[in-house]
Design a protein that fits this description.
It contains 3 helices and 8 strands, in the order E-E-E-E-E-E-E-H-H-H-E. It has an 8-stranded mixed β-sheet, sandwiched between helices. The mean pLDDT is about 85. The chain is of the alpha+beta class. The longest helix is centred in the last third of the chain and has 14 residues, at about 115-130. About 30% of the residues are buried. Helices cover about 20% and strands about 35% of the residues.
């Protein structure tokens, strides 16, 4: 965990591998004992103890997490058809200290806006919180 006790940021939940409009922003937060994602209207998408979360990071930078028996595909950047994060989501993550600069390789930064590096950071934070990651 960071010195303030948690992390938060906006990532995208890939609800469908085929329909880009279904890749929606979620406010993701990791606090001691709680890992949670909220959609644009404030509904909780998933919530669980990070020590009970499983998952893995794919080669292309998708963080697959298993929470309460359901799998969620999280990516660091939405597609062209993805909606913008809501004002409520932006306000929810602004209460956290901004993370240190996440840097990726030149190709990731150029072609993907650093999205893969962002998801590697989330994988590291979840691992530090006790998640079972491969």
């Amino acid at each position: 965990m960071s010195k303030h006790g948690g992390h938060a940021g906006i990532v995208y939940w890939r609800r469908s591998p085929w329909n880009g409009a279904r890749c929606v922003p979620v406010a993701l937060s990791l606090l001691p004992g709680e890992f949670r994602a909220q959609d644009g209207v404030g509904n909780v998408v998933f919530q669980g103890d990070p020590r009970e979360v499983g998952g893995r990071l794919t080669r292309l930078g998708t963080l697959l997490v298993n929470v309460d028996g359901k799998r969620y595909a999280l990516v660091g950047r939405g597609g062209a058809l993805s909606p913008e994060p809501s004002a409520g989501q932006q306000a929810a993550v602004s209460a956290f200290q901004p993370p240190s600069a996440v840097t990726g390789g030149a190709v990731d930064l150029l072609l993907n806006g650093g999205a893969a590096a962002r998801m590697r950071s989330w994988r590291a934070w979840l691992g530090e919180a006790g998640a079972r990651l491969r």
